[in-house]
Amino acid sequence: MHKPAQKPSCHNPAIGRGDSHCRKKCIHPGQFMDMSQDKFHEECGVFGVYGHPEAANLTYLGLYALQHRGQEGAGICSSDGKQMYIEKAMGLVADIFHEKRLKKLPGYLAIGHNRYSTAGSSILKNVQPIVANFSMGSLALGHNGNLVNAGELRKSLENEGAIFQSTSDSEVVVHLIAHSKGEGFHERVVQALRQVSGAFSLLIMRENELIAARDPYGVRPLCLGQVDGAYVVASETCALDLISAKYIRDIEPGEVLIINDKGLTSHKALTSSRRAFCIFEFIYFSRPDSSIFGGQTVNSIRKEFGRQLARESHVEADVVIPVPDSGVPAALGYSEESGIRFDFGLIRNHYIGRTFIEPKQNIRHFGVKIKLNPVRELLEGKRVVVIDDSIVRGTTSKKIVKMIRESGAREVHLRISSPPTIMPCFYGIDTPTRQELIASTHDVEETRKYVTADSLSYMNIDGLLKVVPGSSDYCTACFSNIYPISFPGEHMEQMEFLFK
Question: Which listed site, 8, 73, 221, 448, has its alpha carbon 20 to 30 Å from 97?
């Protein structure tokens, strides 16, 4: 186990995803600091189809269902068995893939990818799938996760003559396959994946087959389904539901699954001593209607988080309200366990974009109020319990508490359905630096004073693990500072140098 001191504020190709830019969000003229800047962001979603005459159309729908996993760019690559076709662009799935564009993607085989990235890498060349030609033909690749040794692998490959077209760590896998000395393509894929370290749920497509692979720790979810005799692979089961596909099973941690005209061929090619499912998939990232990690639906787990939170930190109050939308299931659970009435005291505007022209006059809490509006008649004179899934920087929580209090609330009690987030993630989540995580530099009482709540309680980490199935199978590094996947020596040396 490794415990990095903290994450560098400027991203380095040797550290994390391989995007050579600063990961901190920059606010440009005309772009206000909205709530999304004070949340964690997942990196990507993947979806693939084998054996369906409308493979690209199904992939479009799958990506639509997985839009929450990435909103900055999307791509689809299809194949008719002889040739690959690729379409990708910046923006949302529904804006990119109109009927005319989908007609350019014929074939019975397709993979798609939704990308979330930081501002510096929001460029078309980093949108996936990555498509490449090499000695054994063509391949396309879509990746959800983060390779912690991408930097040193990239440097080694460049020394061997490899020329990279993007700053994404995912391209490292493509070059490893091309440089492999394995006899067949499948052997090359396995050899490549045995060299990478970190989190990956991966789809690789050739002209006539689809390969799904998951890292041996199982950090990110990946599942297998079937519709009309065709096989489907997706980051979450909600994507299967949209196309009426039947869920078969999860792709197992360490599994490389080959799907072609021979059917399914599974190889347990990668091994580890433990599982390390990302706990934040249950807390925030996955859609509530998905089932992940072979367990219960995300919604039922989040409701149980709320019940456990009420058992741990009950307070006398008149109403329980969620911070929408992510706090809703936990707030319902808290209400059911505590017996305190549930209501929607904050109403979310779902149509807010990423940019907005601020008015010249000073409007209090403008950035939050454009996204959330309090319902005064529900809050005035009341003792209010506010439920949210996490606190990252604390700036949004502070504005929400003040907004509720200004709407006439007599007391405001903030309850968080996860433990304090004290460390950044290296396995595929865009997180602030450690200095920006309020819980890493402030204890609970100091944080309470900062957000101006009457009381503040987080979920206990033991309580959190009591709720999820298989409590020893999760990565909790962001709460515990215990990182399950080892980092390369170069990575650790840079960490130590940066934070002496």
Answer: 221
